[in-house]
Each structure stands twice: as C-alpha cells, then as structure tokens.
Specification:
- Strands 1-2 form a two-stranded antiparallel sheet.
- The protein is flat, with a radius of gyration of 18 Å.
- The longest helix has 9 residues.
- By secondary structure, it is of the alpha+beta class.
- It is 20% helix and 14% strand.
Length: 83
C-alpha cells in the first residue's frame, strides 16, 4: 500500500507494544491464517514472558533472565519459576 511507504517503523501501531517485527513475503490473496507471523502470534497469545533485569544494577537495560509461562499456570508455579 502506497500510504505505508513513507511511514517510519516506529509509527506502526503493532510496534507500540512489542519488539518483534515480522517481514514475510506471501500472496495477499492467500488465507490470513497461513501467514507465519499470524501463527507465531497465535502461539504466543496464551503465554506470558517476564524479562528481568540485573537486580544488583537497577539502571541496567539488559534482561539476562527470561521466564516464559502459560497463562493457565497457577501463581504457585509462577513463584517457583521465578525462584
């Protein structure tokens, strides 16, 4: 679409809340559910990812610890994963 060509990457609404950009070549007439990015989004919708920074350095911008858990897990299981 021509109107998108002049937009800056940060202006896309889908990047306002996330950090993943999918670039995929596909036939625009193909079924929406066949797109790989759609499958990735659907696979992640029931998961929560916690990115934790270095506790000793609160200014640290890195997130060396990543915890992924299903939304259906219990709070106890989340606490165990964090511990």
């Amino acid at each position: 679409m021509d109107w998108r060509k002049s937009k800056q990457v940060g202006e896309f609404a889908s990047l306002a809340h996330g950090v993943t950009l999918f670039v995929e070549e596909n036939d625009p007439k193909s079924d929406f559910n066949t797109y790989r990015w759609k499958k990735e989004f659907d696979a992640e919708i029931d998961k929560i990812t916690l990115n934790l920074n270095n506790f000793d350095d609160p200014e640290d911008a890195e997130f060396p610890l990543r915890i992924r858990i299903d939304r259906s897990e219990t709070v106890k299981q989340l606490k165990q994963a964090i511990a």
